[in-house]
Design a protein that fits this description.
alpha/beta; Rossmann fold; Arc Repressor Mutant, subunit A; about 55% helix
Amino acid sequence: MMKLANAGTEFGPAGKPADLSAALLAQPHVHRGVPVSTDRITVLLADDHTLFRAGLRMLLRAAPEIEVVGEAENGDHAVAAAARLAPDVVVLDLDMPGSDGATAIRGLRTNAPSARVLVLTVYPEHASLLPVLELGACGYLTKDAAVRELVDAIRVVAAGEVYVRPSAARALATAVASPVLKPVHRTRFDLLSDREQITLRRIASGYSGAEIARELGVSSKTVDAYKRRIRDKLGLVHRSDFVRFAVEAGLLGAGASQLEGER
């Protein structure tokens, strides 16, 4: 479970995203700056681009209390390194070869539970923010952020709070505020079979193909077939497409419960 400091709200897979958004907007760092500590903060950098990691390491030297203790080039390596090094914060890219960021977040929660995950990605907040917070990430920042914002985000996450930009919290609240599906989204969603609908929801929530296969009791090849059918019927290709469709259709918020009740 994720607890938002000073907000009195816990959020987990069964939580309410709209409540999360309100709690995020109430956070002190969202409006008035961030907590600054002189305590040492250890950081693990996980990104598949060597030069990008080297640049981050160099830039973070500007914050004397932040120490980069390790690097990882994919999700599997990030989980293994975090279990070995026990960093305070893992700065994690979502799009890496092998295990993707979503799978890595779940692995970190299991194998390095004390490490707090700050997602640093090219994907805009509206595409992936909600799923990664549901998975247990503690912050979300895009790669166009200024160095100062990254340092602030690391400090916030290390202090036990959740970091998102104010605009992202407002966008999240707007995206999931209404549990009523728009007719066009409902019509398109109804084009899918029951198994395809489950697959769409799980992909949008960050599940891997193997995890979906285990839940449905089918092979990974069968899940790949479901994904191809979803692509053909709805035009969804990348995970961000799945997330955007699911959020706009209400499949990840209160509308998900309504839809499940009608099936």
